Amino acid sequence: MAWRVAALALWGLIACGSKDPVRELIRDLDRYPEYSLIVDDTRIEGSFFPDYALRFQVLTAAGQRVAGRDTIVYEERRTDWMEVREETFYRYEKYVGMVVASKSLDGRRTGTSQAHPPGYQYVGNPQYGFWGGGGFWQFYGQYALMSHLMGGWGVGRGDWEDYRRNRERGRPYYGPVKGGRPTFGSRGSQTQKTRPQFYQRQQSRRQAFSGQVKNRMGRTTSGWGRGSSRFGK
């Protein structure tokens, strides 16, 4: 119970406007033998002086005694909205639905530079599942939450190999690209299915921004034309 109180206190401080909430959350999550930190949602309020905020989804695992047996129990929760600076917001906004920090039982860690879809860090590890028919990864029953976090997305061998190469090179991985569009991340096809409200808000925001840019360009062009005619007199 004490760790929950401490975590809530820390998250409350972060929500007041930390420079980088991911780094602060990692410090708290390091107490767990296993965790995944996922960008859950983004928010921009206001237009002239906008306020930026991020929310995170946290998946932790810890050993517990259940029905007389030692087992790993997973817990999933979400943070409060955390106000951040503009540069911090845009550092993470493209990774909605993706893991920006993780630690597995074998001690392997990934960071933001290796952002990836949830659950990919467990694929290929016989402790968590196996390669089934058709060449797709199957999680064991106790790790079914991983499949849920991926929205039921099936990870094939080629997909996993691409992820491994990107991870080893310190690059983010957005899943397979189809029709010029990634599978995961803020613009991903899978994100559109699993987070429809976020995706709709994001599209509306982009369209509004595009409209503002066109209006500004129109006013600039019109003003330049009037100025040119005066100089021509």
Number of helices: 7
Number of strands: 10
Measured by DSSP, the beta-strand proportion falls in 15-25%
- How would you classify the helix and strand content by structural class? alpha+beta
Computed Rg: 22 Å
The poorly predicted ranges are 227-233
Distance between the termini: 80 Å
Please give the largest β-sheet: 6 strands, antiparallel
Helicity range of the residues?
Answer: 25-40%
Order of helices and strands: HHEEEEHEEEEHHEEHH
Name the overall outline. globular
Average per-residue pLDDT, rounded, comes to 83
Count of all domains: 1
Task: Summarize this structure briefly.
39% of the residues lie in helices and 25% in strands. By secondary structure, the chain is of the alpha+beta class.
What does this structure look like?
This protein is an alpha+beta fold and 233 residues long. It has one domain (2-210). It contains 7 helices and 10 strands. The strands form 3 sheets. Strands 1, 2, 3, 4, 5 and 6 form a 6-stranded antiparallel sheet that branches. A two-stranded antiparallel ribbon has the order 7-8. A hairpin with a 5-residue loop joins strand 7 (129-131) and strand 8. It is globular.
What topology does this entry show?
Elements: H1 2-14, H2 21-29, E1 34-45, E2 51-66, E3 69-78, E4 82-84, H3 86-92, E5 99-103, E6 109-110, E7 129-131, E8 137-139, H4 144-149, H5 157-168, E9 177-178, E10 181-182, H6 189-194, H7 196-232
Antiparallel strand pairs: 1-2, 1-5, 2-3, 2-4, 5-6, 7-8, 9-10
